[in-house]
Amino acid sequence: MTKDKIKVLNLYAGIGGNRKLWTNVDVTAVEINPEIAKIYQDFFPEDKVIVGDAHKYLLEHYKEFDFIWSSPPCPSHSRARYWASKGNKFKVIYPDMKLYQEIILLQNYANCLWVIENVIGYYIPLITPVEIHRHYFWSNFQLIKKRFNRIKTGFSKKDIHRWSDYHGFDISKYQIKSYDKRQILRNCVYPKLGLHVFNCAFKTKQVLLSNLNKGGG
Q1: What are phi and psi of 115, to 5 degrees?
Q2: Which H or E run contains 195?
Q3: Which residues contact 26 (CB under 8 A, 6 or more apart)?
Q4: How distant, in Å, are the alpha carbons of 96, 124, 127 from that of 121?
Q5: Do 147 and 170 form a contact (C-beta atoms < 8 A)?
Q6: Are the C-beta atoms of residues 69 and 12 closer than 8 Å to each other?
Q7: pLDDT tens digits, residue range 96-138?
Q8: Domain 6-213 CATH class label
Q9: 3-state secondary structure of 14
């Protein structure tokens, strides 16, 4: 008898780096860029892909899933953009507080397992995260720290093939007008990290259920 599939909401899905190695899942993915959403759908034809506002979708649908993964836009929090702004290469902008809105919402209202991912920021986080690989994570389950292979590249378009090999996504056939291919690949969560976080969530759930069955607190 097959186990019921885990109902997952994958927000700001990109092309699906975090989702690549998940199994036994029924995924709803939300991505605002239609060109990127099309690539995601090609890689994961069984997932339900919605082109729309992930922040709004979370507020309206957070009660409907077993597991939520959200990766809100990271540039306004990143160290790279901060230093570029300090060097007058970019305009100074406010940090996008949708990140913390989603953390607070899920901390206080969600009954499912959830995780929010972002870059390691240039400021002291307002809510303490767990740091793994080159990411911050906020979650309602225990995350185990683990090391993963890193990729050394620059900012040249010649590095696209290295990012492609690293994440296991070949997007060379796509003509993308709205976004740089190197950045699409760079924005991916390393698939082995995505699987590790997913496994942490459901290992935690199994331990909790086991304790409840034994009468543990």
Answers
A1: -145, 140
A2: helix 191-213
A3: 5, 6, 7, 8
A4: 12, 7, 12
A5: no
A6: no
A7: 999 999 999 999 999 999 999 999 999 999 999 999 998 999 9
A8: alpha beta
A9: coil
Closest CA to 8 of 123, 145, 161, 112: 112
Q: Which of 200, 216, 197, 198 is nearest to 208 (CA)?
A: 216
Calculate the alpha carbon distances from 195 to 1, 5, 18, 140 in Å: 24, 16, 7, 17
Q: Encode 133-159: b = buried (16+ Cβ within 10 Å), e = exposed.
A: bebbbbbebebeeeeeeeeebeeeeeb
Nearest to 63 by CA among 111, 105, 7, 115: 111
Dihedral through CA 203, CA 121, CA 176, CA 39, nearest 10? 10
pTM value is 0.89
3-class secondary-structure state, position 139: strand
User: Rounded to an integer, what distance in angstroms lies between the CA atom of residue 12 and that of residue 1?
Assistant: 33
d(CA 10, CA 92): 30
